[in-house]
Design a protein that fits this description.
The complex is a heterodimer of chains A (about 290) and B (about 750). Chain A is α+β, with helices and mostly antiparallel strands and about 290 residues long. Chain A has eight helices and eight strands. In chain A, helix 6 packs antiparallel against helix 7, helix 6 runs parallel beside helix 8 and helix 7 (about 240-260) packs antiparallel against helix 8. With about 750 residues, chain B is of the alpha+beta class. Chain B is built from 27 helices and 23 strands. The chains are: A alpha+beta (about 290), B alpha+beta (about 750). The interface of A and B includes residues 110, 119, 132, 157 and 160 of A.
Chain lengths: ~290, ~750
């Protein structure tokens, strides 16, 4: 570890620098509420179809049910994931990944790095893959997956995905116990920047958000997706990208209803199934166009 | 003789799949080599986190030439058929031989070089390898457990050249991911391979890795006056996660020691794969752990120890938070939440299951000598821990945590123990509960699962047993036999049907229709169960005589009997169960089947179980006593001979039955009776009554002794007397005698089901 540990923002910059050198497009976060970096269309849709793809981005990931009003030292309703997606996965992806750890100061001759079986699955987007959780000294620092299916469709060429939980990794690198005490940079702590968000949004999502409104909006989104997909763009293409934004919104509305405790156990599977169906429609529409291109 | 060395180097193989993969590789290679007539002198495989290795010693350089007779067309077949056959075999007609109207060709197959066969074999093995889950990567279509990176294949010092989906074989491999030189190296044979791997920080043999882990971990503990908590399953797993195992000891904050030991151990084992450490003086957990690193770290493992300690600390802080929070809510107060937890769509919520458990445990208590109130209370609270934070985090601690919370609430040791043990035995090695309250609840838990799934038609088939009903039945068998409990299985299944009352709630009723009556039990009736006890008994009878249904009700009823035939309930059917009389026989048969398996696993004779179950006995303890008495009897000479006599008698009777009904009545002493016939009449005479008495007294050894007295007269009878006499009175009398023999023996066992 360097004498002065990387700040939160320093960590992101190092990762950007490293993956940029591997030929990745460094993207800006997707601007719709998203539960995980994987769900960004830059991963979900771009892994489908035959075209190669290389990208890296930070994705603020919102999970309303995890809100703790800023009072819990390591639970957040919004954390940040660093997402790398490479399609087809290069043969030396494991070596590239280990290179990225060295770039942020994790020396594999001092730290115990392990690849521990973990079969990744996301029923909401009908996706699964095989890979590992990567452990550093017993801590999970990365989800490493070879995507096999997305939106119920086979992914070929196969895409390799790396997802790094930035807060957790940063806590480790800075040797800090409370996420709000992380140095964001030399001037600000993580708390200076995000504590107010955690406090206000936790109250909103756990108490204030109106369930009826969310439900109504969810149903709106559910109607919109097939309507949008039935239309064609000016150049004759399908409108999978805007349709998929509506799926993301539906997914976030579901998460809000869930955080408000408004989803009964019995309804849960049905909601997830509805979102998966919408997602599958978008995936199929996207692939049809990609195949033509 | 030449040696074959194969290494399949891949990205990290899940630890749990490695041992089986080594076995599969060995089996597939043996089968294929044998099929080609190539028999190695020795064959061994190794599996680790990144490689599967095979070494076969003493293979021939080439296959021997083979001569094979190939069947051709019939000799009267059209000319074209013969031409085709000659083309295929490359022979002339004069080379063929004709036998039984068919042409045969003697084909000479020159043996092929072994490397050629090996190349084909490896491709077939790689493509057909039975990984539990496999994947593709990049642009390759090749399926493997994780991306396959290198194939090393050397035969007799030379590369066996082949390609699988663009991956070429070679004589090169690489060492440890971090500690190796990073440079691939070549090998010429197995010895060089193992030696170079060791130099590049890879321990090839998993057994060697385990030995090194155990030795080093024990040494670390010893140096600090501690003792390693050994755990074979964990050792197997950890040995599959590392190539160069280096145990490192880390410290745990001693404040966590007030957590239940199971919580600490589960967190260490399941989440972190650490070994726990105990203080040999107290036998209690010590505030340390041993993790097994994959590297010999340049700082001696300090960073690794600190990092792991921090992760464990975070995990245990969570657990401690839940442990504190959980104890703020009583188990009783948690019942309400169980209404929202589904047990099974067709069997209702966990709350309803709890109500059934209460009723079944209540009925069970007197049979096992338990205090009824305590058994009911323990059953009621047994599932509450499913809603606690600790069990949410560590599902494997269900039951155990319930026991802790019960103790913390001061519910008394018997209730706490019954909650703690109610899932037991969880596996073949697990202990069985042996205290009455615990037994009542543990039996109720298993019987509710077993009968419940049978009642909705979810029976195990073949290898499919998704609800672990076999384990539940075995659990019942073990508990019952260990404490010699008298448990009439048919009665227990009836208890389950009576517990269907759990579904009665405002808005729904339990409904059943039988040929005699139709009945509704509504919420008001359930509430008034004391006053209604007589009617409820009648209702319970009806439950066992129809198809019970739970129906929606828009009016409130107590208990309604309708003597008119009504085939359908008014409201929507919410749940429906199969008829008791079908289910009870299936459940008893399932127990017979499981008891056979259990006896077989213990090296006992199991084929006699059917002979006893056929009598209709449903008491496991009595069945086992009868089986062992019968077993002992059949081992004696008297037993074997009597069994032969029985079979002879039954065969004669069967043949007679085909011709018409057997004569009824008792055999008489007739003037023409031979002494042997008279002797058998006497022997059988009062045997019935004596056998009855012995069986009633459960004196099965005595019953066998009584039977053994039949042997001599039966043998003599068959020796001297002809059953099929010309005189019809004589014949009928002798048949009556054989019927008596058969029926008398039938009181003890159904000998027709005994083999041999």
């Amino acid at each position: 570890m360097p004498i002065k540990p990387l700040s939160f923002q320093g960590l992101i910059l190092k990762l950007h620098d490293y993956w940029s050198r591997q030929g990745c497009a460094i993207l800006q976060p997707y601007d719709v509420e998203i539960g995980a970096g994987t769900l960004s269309p830059m991963t979900v849709l771009r892994t489908l179809g035959p075209r190669p793809w290389k990208a890296a981005y930070v994705q603020p990931s919102r999970r309303p049910a995890d809100g703790r009003y800023g009072e819990n030292p390591n639970r957040l309703r919004q954390h940040h994931q660093y997402q790398v997606i490479l399609k087809p996965n290069p043969e030396n992806l494991q070596e590239l990944y280990l290179g990225c750890l060295e770039a942020i100061g994790i020396d594999p001759k001092v730290h115990d790095i392990r690849f521990v079986e973990d079969d990744w699955e996301n029923p909401t987007v009908g996706a699964w893959g095989l890979g590992w959780e990567v452990w550093c000294d017993g801590m999970e620092i990365t989800q490493y997956t070879y995507f096999q299916q997305v939106g119920g469709l086979d992914v070929f060429p196969v895409a390799g995905e790396l997802t790094i939980g930035l807060e957790r990794l940063s806590l480790y690198l800075q040797d800090v116990d409370n996420v709000y005490d992380l140095q964001f940079n030399d001037e600000f702590t993580y708390g200076d920047i995000y504590l107010a968000n955690e406090q206000q949004f936790s109250s909103f999502e756990l108490e204030v958000a109106d369930v009826d409104t969310a439900k109504r909006q969810f149903e709106d989104m559910e109607r919109e997706v097939p309507r949008i997909l039935a239309m064609k763009g000016r150049q004759g293409q399908s409108l999978a990208l805007p349709a998929y934004d509506h799926v993301l919104k539906a997914s976030h509305l579901f998460n809000i209803m869930d955080a408000r405790g408004a989803i009964a156990v019995a309804e849960r599977q049905s909601y997830i199934g509805r979102i998966r169906d919408l997602c599958k429609m978008c995936a199929e529409s996207w692939v049809t166009d990609e195949g033509v291109n | 003789m030449p040696q074959l060395l194969l290494e399949l180097l891949s990205e990290e193989i899940p630890a749990r799949m490695q041992a089986q993969a080594a076995k599969d590789l060995e089996r597939m290679a043996r089968e294929r080599l044998a099929a080609e007539g190539l028999l190695p002198e020795a064959l061994k495989t190794f599996a680790g986190s990144r490689r599967l290795t095979l070494v076969a010693e003493g293979l021939p350089e080439a296959q021997k030439d083979r001569h094979e007779e190939v069947k051709g067309p019939r000799s009267n077949a059209p000319e074209q058929a013969l031409d085709g056959f000659l083309r295929k075999t490359g022979l002339k007609k004069s080379d063929l031989t004709e036998r039984d109207g068919i042409w045969y060709a003697n084909v000479h197959k020159p043996g092929r070089p072994t490397p050629q066969i090996v190349a084909e074999m490896i491709e077939a093995i790689v493509r057909g390898f039975p990984w539990p889950k496999s994947m593709t990567s990049g642009v390759s279509k090749l399926k493997w457990v994780r991306p396959l990176r290198r194939i090393l294949c050397v035969f007799d010092g030379h590369v066996v050249p082949f390609q699988i989906d663009g991956l070429s074989s070679g004589n090169v491999t690489e060492g440890h991911r971090f500690m190796g030189s990073g440079q691939p190296f070549s090998v010429k044979d197995f010895d060089a391979y193992a030696e170079k791997l060791e130099k590049h920080f890879v321990v090839l043999d998993p057994e060697e890795r385990k030995d090194r882990i155990l030795d080093a971990a024990k040494t670390l503990c010893f140096a600090r006056n501690l003792e390693l908590v050994e755990d074979q399953g964990l050792l197997d797993e950890v040995a599959g996660l590392v190539e160069w195992p280096i145990p490192v000891m880390g410290d745990m904050d001693p404040v966590f020691l007030d957590l239940p030991a199971e919580v600490i151990r589960t967190s260490m084992r399941v989440h972190q794969r650490y070994f726990a450490v105990r203080d040999p003086k107290t036998g209690k957990l010590a505030p340390h752990f041993v993790t097994v690193a994959n590297i010999d770290a340049t700082d001696g493992g300090k960073t690794i120890a600190l990092g792991n300690a921090k992760v464990l600390s975070a995990r245990l802080s969570d657990a401690r938070f839940f442990w504190t929070e959980d104890r703020k809510t009583t188990l009783e107060a948690r019942l309400e939440k169980l209404k929202g937890v589904t047990f099974h769509a067709k069997l209702g919520a966990m709350y309803e299951r709890v109500e059934r458990l209460e009723m079944i445990a209540g009925a069970m208590a007197p049979r096992v000598g338990a205090d009824v109130a305590k058994a009911v209370q323990a059953a009621r609270l047994a599932k509450s821990d499913l809603t606690t934070g600790v069990v949410g985090e560590f599902p494997e601690l269900q039951g155990i945590m319930g026991g802790y919370y019960a103790t913390a609430e001061g519910l008394g040791p018997l209730v706490a123990e019954a909650i703690r043990e109610h899932y037991r035995p969880a596996g073949p090695a697990d202990e069985v509960p042996d205290r009455p309250v615990s037994m009542a609840v543990a039996l109720a838990e298993k019987l509710d699962t077993l009968v419940g799934f049978y009642a909705i038609g979810e029976k195990p088939t073949g290898s499919r047993d998704p609800f672990a009903l076999r384990r539940a039945a075995l659990g019942v068998i073990r508990i019952v036999l260990a404490s010699e409990l008298r448990l009439p299985l048919r009665e227990v299944v009836a208890d389950w049907y009576r517990s269907l009352r759990c579904f009665v709630d405002p808005g729904r009723a339990l409904w059943v229709s039988t040929p005699k009556l139709t009945a509704h039990l509504g919420a008001r009736g359930r509430a008034k169960s004391q006053e209604f006890s007589v009617y409820l008994r009648e209702f319970d009878e009806a439950l066992l005589d129809g198809v019970p249904q739970v129906v929606a009700m828009d009016r409130e009823v107590d208990l309604e009997f309708d003597r008119l035939e009504r085939e359908k309930p008014e409201g929507e059917i919410l749940f429906e169960f199969r008829r008791y009389d079908e289910v009870v026989e299936e459940v008893v048969a399932f127990f017979a089947d499981r008891l056979e398996v259990w006896l077989r696993d213990r090296g006992q004779r199991h084929d006699l179980v059917a002979a006893i179950f056929a009598l209709g006995d449903d008491d496991l303890v009595r069945i086992v006593a009868r089986v062992s008495a019968l077993d002992a009897f059949l081992k004696t000479e008297d037993g074997t001979n009597l069994l032969a006599g029985y079979k002879r008698a039954v065969n004669i009777l069967k043949a007679e039955e085909k011709r018409g009904a057997l004569p009824s009545g008792l055999p008489a002493r007739m003037g023409a009776s031979s002494p042997e016939e008279l002797a058998l009449i006497v022997a059988v005479g009062d045997l019935d009554a004596k056998l009855d008495a012995a069986v009633d007294a459960e004196n099965f050894v005595g019953a066998m002794q009584l039977l053994s007295k039949l042997r001599a007269p039966v043998d003599a009878f068959f020796d001297k007397v002809l059953v099929n006499s010309d005189v019809s009175d004589e014949r009928d009398n002798r048949l009556r005698l054989l019927v008596r023999v058969r029926d008398a023996m039938g009181q003890v066992a159904d000998f027709s089901q005994v083999t041999g």
